[in-house]
Design a protein that fits this description.
The structure is a homodimer of 597-residue chains. Chain A has 597 residues and is an alpha+beta fold. Chain A has 20 helices and 11 strands. In chain A, 56% of the residues lie in helices and 11% in strands. In chain A, β8 and β9 form a beta hairpin. The relative contact order of chain A is 0.09.
């Protein structure tokens, strides 16, 4: 059976040594999060995830969710108790506004807990995760009355939330959506239509479910400019705020999926269900997009989380499984064979995953900190800079962490040989679960297009220029740093590749947008490598300093420095290939007639 | 529901136009395989695979195999009828020795049928596939009596075959195996032990099952030099050759796997089961390895097959699914949105898969032809050259076609967005099924090690030198060919990368074998790209000639030329990254202490 240990020490190193947590003291909520408090929160979250959520991961996968004949949905055994523990621990509202019962702590801490929970049990973590997403939209766009009515219940976990976007004929292209909203004259609307792939759409964990539903008000313009967002509760709240009469929304069926079986992915039918407008009429997409950065960061975290838990289990196996002798002579001569971690190709797979995970976690945390700054700082220029980073980095995080995270689960599975293919060891579940993160919350091709089509040119390229300037500044500031020296040339070289690729788009994609589309995925991954390399540079500087200041940390810090060096040597050569592919443009692929495919 | 159309036209183009089928007329069995006969065989195989096997693929996945309380195993509904049709069609013994009831046709044709069957229904195709593997060992190593007793039944399909290698504590390292064989004094042995991951180990398709089992004779040396191979039939043949008394071999359980649910992967228990030595005592591994090339080529074909069927379904979807408008303006203005094949990133995924599939099929066929030459030619030098190619290319084919084949099923699934993640469209099954091919018949890391550790240095590097010389000769011969011109520089450049990598191993891996292990997977994939690029060069020359000779073929041939150009532009930049990674050696990855993982 697989196991999981939350990477608490790594998180503390990143927060304290790499990113200087104390520097954020001036932001609201951070004062309540002293290093000691953070430690206590991390330990508590780790305990819950390791001891309560993780043991339900494999059983939840096997059991799945069951739709009962009456349309109700039963979650796997143990999920309800785990959900209660999660809710009672206050984890859903960890970073939410105290005015509605939240703890008001930094969002960064919520992102960390999200990694732990998602690694322990991705299917489970989606139930509170969806609530947090819906809550974010509600708190930004809701009227005070709506917030008072729904937010406290959602924060306590008594009610959960969902996001209803996709319909059978429209996923990416929401302009095609058909779900209708008809004014009922009392301020409410009748919502009619079918939504598919609705995560946590129906279940037995909460008293009530608050569906946020995109629909088109009668007479609204066609396309994306005629879409509004509605609050459609499963049970209509009574005047006193308790859940009352059943609304005309129901789960038509549960999708049979490749993975995340413990989460109920539903077809939801709205048959004139009562809903209330959330935010302005015809501005539903904007309301959705406001929380898109955090939602996409949440999915990026799932990619990292599955990569991490798969790594941990593969590492344990590679140190125990005895098979063949080392090429350089027996390493465990007293045993019938050497543990497979001695074999370079096994070790390569392991260190590739690790070199990604540690940098990816750093990138998640630094981006989460930017989100805290963007939402909590009072300084305009600071907020703008943080927003620039968020806008630019969100598609990179979502696309790269889920693509590579998935590939890493496949690699970790490979370490087990045949044992990775059977259910017993749990490795194949990580692969199946991780796969969805490349698809939902905007398929990764859409992330790439968002990056090159929107985020790069935005504000005259201000965000990407700031990024280049920040990395260049960092390299210059620390040019004499001994720990950075082995890594600096590699980072410089790939920054150069990214600059060339960016320039290529400026010169070739304006007049011919297909050139942007043809190179978008390569650009996103090239960007990801540079961003992760920049994280390794920061980690190396911090590790060098920590090792000097605290010799007892030497073994851990040396492992960081070796892994960072490996990243530069082995992962970075890919950037030149990305650049070369981008430079070939769209001509050849567009030359093939569609019917030749 | 997914569909499948066997790529008959592509196979005919490869056999006739690219590889010159008629040049092999002088080999036994080829005279019976005139182009017309081949056409008829391909059409018949296509019909069976498309109409009988493919419709059982999704249902077989959902239903799986069931072990009954009495230890018997029930295959999914329809498999028995399909198996009878497959057996009656003579497909199992298509290339087998006519002396035992086979058709004696070229092995190349069997490889083609294998692709069709595996694409249509991988789980199903493994039942006859395992029989063919066991049969090959029997025909090479069996006594005449053994061959007479078993081969005709296996060729007719009345009896099926299995290979029993893996035990719980040993997969790759067969030297650790514990299954015991004790002489019974009557020429037979009592076999005792447990085998795991035995494909087609028990089922209801055939009257009898002939297990080939690796075991250690009492008193045999430890390690790989004390392993013998045994024939252990499920039912002991009577004197008249009919199946008689039940042997002491049974299926203990069926493994719960990620995919290939339609194939019964069994834990097999041998409790003093009666077996007979196949081949010489203590030479069991050699007996197994004789057929390894064809068995590994068979698995390589599974990688291609899943990539092909996933491609076909993704192409159909991409031409039908309407979502968003083309970046260069509406392409289907009469529809609510454009078909997604107009979007460059979707098209990129599709053409990447296609560019791989067509070259991979060429590499499979040219290698299968070498196998026919190696087994059927009377000319020593010709046989030696063919054997060199086979030895060198087999690990490349197995490792690269299954790694990339799997990645392609993931890509094809991505084209479907959320619809790819649910069972309905069948795409996620291709991913789950394709995954095993990277693991069994020697995990791909082992293929890479076989390539750099054994195949490269063998005979003073004769095989790799011949390969370089052949590719160089081809480029020189056709240097004036207009169709080749756009592809030649790309191919030359990657051949150069492969030569540099080969040289690097010669200089750095002899003294320090970890350097070979550290770069082995990169080398295998670098080699794969060069080999596939060489296939594209040959396809381009043939396509140019065919287009000139037969203008009606222009559209098809142009599609080949465009796809080949895409391969050079977009897939080949990867070779430089492989070379760079190889050149960093093992030092950094070996520097991390094992307990730091």
């Amino acid at each position: 059976m697989p196991s999981y240990k939350a990477p608490v020490e790594d998180v503390k190193f990143l927060l304290n040594d790499v990113f200087g947590w104390e520097r954020y003291d001036n932001l609201p909520g951070f004062a309540d999060a002293s290093p000691d408090t953070v430690d206590a929160i991390l330990e508590e979250a780790a305990k819950l995830c390791e001891q309560v959520l993780q043991p339900l991961n494999a059983t939840g996968d096997r059991e799945g969710c069951q739709r009962q004949p009456d349309g109700s949905v039963t979650t796997p055994k143990g999920f309800k108790q785990a959900y209660d523990a999660f809710a009672e621990g206050g984890w859903i509202g960890l970073a939410a506004d105290p005015a509605y019962g939240g703890q008001g702590l930094p969002y960064t801490l919520a992102a960390i807990v999200n990694e732990f929970a998602s690694a322990a049990n991705m299917s489970f973590s989606m139930y509170p995760g969806l609530t947090q997403g819906a809550l974010a939209a509600l708190l930004v766009h809701g009227t005070e009355e709506q917030k008072q009515l729904y937010a406290p219940h959602m924060i306590s976990g008594a009610w959960s939330g969902t996001m209803n976007l996709t319909e059978p004929h429209c996923g990416t292209d929401l302009g095609l959506l058909k779900t209708k909203a008809v004014q009922k004259g009392d301020g409410s609307y009748g919502i009619t239509g079918q939504k598919i792939f609705i995560s946590a759409g129906e279940h037995d964990l909460a008293q009530n479910i608050v569906h946020l539903v995109l629909a088109r008000i009668e007479g609204a313009p066609a396309g994306t400019k005629g879409i509004s967002l509605f609050i459609v509760p499963k049970l209509l709240p009574r005047v006193d705020g308790t859940p009352g009469e059943r609304n005309a929304v129901s789960c038509g069926s549960i999708e049979h999926k490749m993975g995340i079986h413990g989460n109920s992915t539903c077809v939801m039918n709205y048959d004139g269900a009562t809903g209330w407008l959330l935010g302005a009429e015809n501005r539903g997409l904007n309301a959705m997009f406001v929380m898109m950065n955090e939602a996409r960061l949440g999915v990026a975290i799932q990619g990292l989380a599955q990569s991490e838990v798969a790594y941990q289990n593969a590492a344990a196996y590679a140190k125990e499984r005895l098979q063949s002798r080392s090429l350089s002579g027996p390493k465990a001569p007293e045993k019938p064979a050497d543990p497979i971690i001695v074999h370079p190709d096994v070790r390569r797979m392991m260190i590739e995953i690790r070199a990604f995970n540690e940098a990816a976690r750093a990138l998640v945390l630094t981006t989460a900190l930017k989100s805290d700054v963007a939402h909590r700082s009072g300084d305009e220029a600071t907020v703008r800079a943080a927003d620039d980073w968020l806008g630019l980095m969100t598609p990179v995080l979502k696309g790269v962490l889920t693509d590579v995270g998935f590939a890493n689960t496949v690699k970790a599975q490979q370490v087990f040989g045949g044992h990775g293919y059977v259910g017993e060891w749990g490795m194949e579940q990580f692969v199946r679960d991780a796969r969805i993160a490349m698809i939902y919350e905007g398929a990764n091709g859409i992330q790439a297009l968002d990056l090159v089509g929107r985020k790069l040119p935005k504000d005259g390229g201000r965000a990407i220029m700031s990024f280049f300037s920040e990395v260049g500044g960092f390299l210059k500031t620390h040019q004499a740093d001994e720990a950075l020296k082995p890594l600096a040339p590699g980072l410089k070289s790939v920054v150069d590749d990214l600059q060339k690729a960016t320039m290529w788009f400026m010169q070739n994609a304006m007049a011919k947008p297909d050139n942007a589309g043809a190179g978008s995925t390569d650009y996103m991954h090239l960007f990801g490598l540079v961003a992760l390399g920049y994280m390794w540079a920061q980690i190396a500087v911090a590790a060098g300093a920590k090792k000097a200041a605290d010799p007892s940390s030497a073994a851990l810090m040396d492992a960081k420095l070796i892994t960072g060096k490996f990243f530069m040597e082995r992962m970075m050569p890919e950037t030149a290939a990305h650049l070369a592919r981008i430079g070939t443009g769209a001509d050849t692929m567009m030359a093939l007639p569609a019917d030749a495919f």
